Amino acid sequence: MHVKHKGHEAMHAEMVLILIVTLVIAQLVLVQWKQRHPKSYNLVTLFQMWVVPLYFTTKLHWWRFLVTWFIFSVVTAYVTYRATRKPLECTTPRLVYKWFLLLYKISYATGIVGYTVVMFTLFGINLIFRIKPEDAMDFGVSLLFYGLYYGVLGRDFAEMCADFMASTVGYYSASGMPTKHLSDSICAVCGQPILVDVSEEGIIENTYRLSCNHVFHEFCIRGWCIVGKKQICPYCKEKVDLKRMFSNPWERPHVMYGQLLDWLRYLVAWQPVIIGLVQGINYILGLE
C-alpha cells in the first residue's frame, strides 16, 4: 500500500483540504438555511432521512430493514393523513401522539439494547455465551442503527404533525397570534375539555399546569414536548421547564435521548450528500 501511494502525498493533501473546506462550507450553508428558512430545511431533511437509507439498503439487499421501513411508512402515512385533515377529529391528536410516543419508546429501548450488546462484545462478555464477536457486534450495531434511525425519523414526522394539528385546532400559531382565545377549560393541544363529567363525552385524565398557568392534559403536553419537540407553551409560547415537568429521574433520559436524535439527524441526512459532493469534486479535478 505504501509503495502504491508513494509520491502522491501532494494529491492526498489536496484531497484532505477539499474535504475540510467542503465540510465547513456545507455546515455554514446548512446553518444559514435552517435559520432563514426552517420550514423548507426541515422538509428537505425529512425527505432525505426517509429516502437516503432506502437507496443504500435496497442496493445492498438488506430485506429486514426494507420490511420494517415499509411497515413504518404505511402506519406513519396513515397517521400523518389523519393529522392533516380539516376539520380535525377530536380523537386524532391522541392517536398521533400515541403512535409516535410508542415509536419513540421502542426506538429508545432498541438503541439501548444495541449499545449494551456492543459494549458487552468489546469487553468479551459474549464469549461466556459462546457467541462469535463478529456476530454479536453485527447484532448490536444493527439494533443501534434501527433505534437511532427510526427515533430520528419518527420525531421529525411527529413535529410536522404537531405543528399542523395545533394550527388546525387554532390555539397555536408558529408565527403570529393564535386564531382562537384559549379558555381555562380547554386543552390547547387537542382542543378538548380539560375536565369532563363521567356522563359527558370527553377525555378523563390527569392535568398539568405550566409555569405560565395554562393547563393541559398531561398526556397531551408530554407528547407535545417530548415527541413533538416543542419546548414552549402551545398557546403563549413561554419556554417550558422540562426538568420541572419530568421530575422522575427515570424519565429524564428520554429527554436527553431526544436531543441526541436531533444531533444525529445531520449525520444520517446530510453526511452522505456532503461525502458524495466531495467525491464529485475529486473526480472533476482528476484526484483519486
Task: Name the descriptors.
288 residues, mainly alpha, 10 helices, 66% helix
Strand tally, please?
2
Shape verdict: globular
Going by helix content, strand content and strand pairing, the class is mainly alpha
The largest sheet, given as strand count, sense and whether it forms a barrel, is:
2 strands, antiparallel
User: Quaternary status of these chains?
Assistant: single chain
Beta percentage is: under 5%
- The value of Rg in angstroms is 23 Å
The helical percent reads 55-70%
**Helix count from the secondary structure assignment:** 10
Span between termini = 14 Å
Write the layout of secondary structure elements.
Elements: H1 2-5, H2 9-36, H3 38-59, H4 63-83, H5 92-122, H6 133-169, E1 207-209, E2 215-217, H7 218-227, H8 242-245, H9 252-269, H10 271-284
Antiparallel strand pairs: 1-2
Write a structural description.
By secondary structure, the protein is an all-alpha fold. The protein is built from 10 helices and 2 strands, in the order ααααααββαααα. It has helices at residues 2-5, 9-36, 38-59, 63-83, 92-122, 133-169, 218-227, 242-245, 252-269, 271-284; strands at residues 207-209, 215-217. It has a two-stranded antiparallel sheet. The mean pLDDT is 78. The chain crosses the membrane at residues 15-33, 40-56, 62-81, 102-129. Residues 187-237 form the RING-type domain. Its main location: membrane. Keywords: Membrane, Metal-binding, Transmembrane, Transmembrane helix, Zinc, Zinc-finger.
